[in-house]
């Protein structure tokens, strides 16, 4: 994500051909060097130990066409999303509660900080042991691993709220429910989405790990199966494809959403190139206009 | 310079304030004891609802832990795994300092390498552990390679970003005063980067030990990961829990206790930022 920020800064000032072409040249050069280095390494050490880029490329196509990539990908993705959604639910309640009430905060802060220290591996093993070989094990693992992280974000976001906002809302006669709906939730929306971004990266790693130990479908299962038959090109092909899908979701979906939600508080350059393109679209302008024209 | 991300544990510690009374008498402490107690109670209740041994009770786990510490070469196993983590981290941090500074100072190197850093960061440690075990084989080099591949991108990211965030006037001033490039690196760049190097090491360490445990789990003949795998394949769930919890606790002590202290010591010269 930070690379995109940085890119936007580099590209922003002038849009001449050279400023676009120069990074592109370096990117292509880097890719060529990396691929040929990989190829030479596999030649040097032995193609049976390190498969070359072409072998992995072949396998990549094979995985997509013949090995039910879509099916496994969807079942993994469903586990990731369900786990993440449940974690968001838990974390929103807990985080807001901890941010607003000292008693709740003191009860849970140790658990949240302790839970964040526990590694994904521990949660994955634990979930598999408690639930057994079932599609619910990865979901439980995600909830256990991701909730503390999200709660921390939302808790801090709530604590950072301007207390005067509450005073003002009270003066204008807003009740508790209305304060929550119209003061707290909009103000912590960025930390919820920011947390979801962090949480997504963690939850798909935990899901794959849990699938590896205790499920018979999904990308983690396929990676483990390829490892068991010592097929490195299979492991690499599955991992690369999966990372590609997850990166697309993160940079293409969540990052623009985040930058849109936080635009009102930061009038600087948007976070990503995608967001910049999005901003130029008529649809987005209309949404932005209605937002700024509406009740601020 | 902006606040570099050395803050997370400072922020984490911030919510714990104590009043004027001694710490063990404040309501804050009792509420936390209550919290810990209810976790243990929930764990115990969970263990009672399942059939025998599916979820071991806290007591059984504690007994198993005690047994492990006494009988099963606990300390040599932990030392072996810690050694692998340390070796991997040394390689990763040295590589990351070199790469991060180069990327922060030179735009060409940055454009050349940034793709790899970002892609590398999004590939999970699990994959690197598998790849390292398969390519390097079942020997001590595998976990080191796995840690290097997993932690380096993360640490590079920290150092690269804070190198870019440095005030260029510092370098100009050093240049005006006739300081040579080597001295500039030693006296200007490195001291300013120390906080982000330590913060990056801390972040990397949290990943590194998991990767080491994973690669031990996938076939190395000894170490904490091997013991976890042994227990897991014998359906000895108390054993899995005992090994995992004890090692996680040791790593947490190292992360927050040792490195946190080092971090505080190394940045003591800085004025307090508004974050606290």
Any key phrases for this structure?
heterodimer, A: mainly alpha, MetI-like fold, 83% helix, B: mainly alpha
Biggest interface, and residues per chain? A-B, 55 and 56 residues
CATH topology type of the largest domain in chain B:
MetI-like fold
Low-confidence parts of chain A, pLDDT < 50 over ≥5 residues? 1-13, 268-272
N-to-C series of helices and strands of chain B: HHHHHHHHHHH
Oligomer: heterodimer
User: How many structural domains are formed by the residues of chain A?
Assistant: 2
What is the CATH C level class of the largest domain in chain A, in words? Answer: Mainly Alpha
Describe this structure in a few short sentences.
The complex is a heterodimer of chains A (296) and B (276). Chain A is mainly alpha-helical and 296 residues long.
Commentary on this structure:
- The complex is a heterodimer of chains A (296) and B (276).
- Chain A is 83% helix and 0% strand.
- Chain A is mainly α.
- Chain A has two domains: 1-45, no CATH class; 53-266, MetI-like fold.
- The relative contact order of chain A is 0.11.
- Mean pLDDT of chain A is 80; it is low at 1-13 and 268-272.
- Chain B is mainly alpha-helical and 276 residues long.
- Chain B has two domains: 24-55; 56-266, MetI-like (MetI-like fold).
- Helix content of chain B is 78%, strand content 0%.
- Chain B has eleven helices and no strands.
- At the A-B interface, helix 1, helix 2, helix 5, helix 6 and helix 7 of A face helix 2, helix 5, helix 6, helix 7 and helix 9 of B.
Give a topology summary.
The complex is a heterodimer of chains A (296) and B (276).
Chain A: H1 2-11, H2 17-45, H3 53-66, H4 69-100, H5 102-117, H6 120-131, H7 136-159, H8 163-171, H9 176-214, H10 219-228, H11 232-261, H12 273-280, H13 282-293
Chain B: H1 8-13, H2 27-49, H3 58-71, H4 74-105, H5 107-122, H6 125-136, H7 141-165, H8 168-176, H9 181-217, H10 224-233, H11 237-266
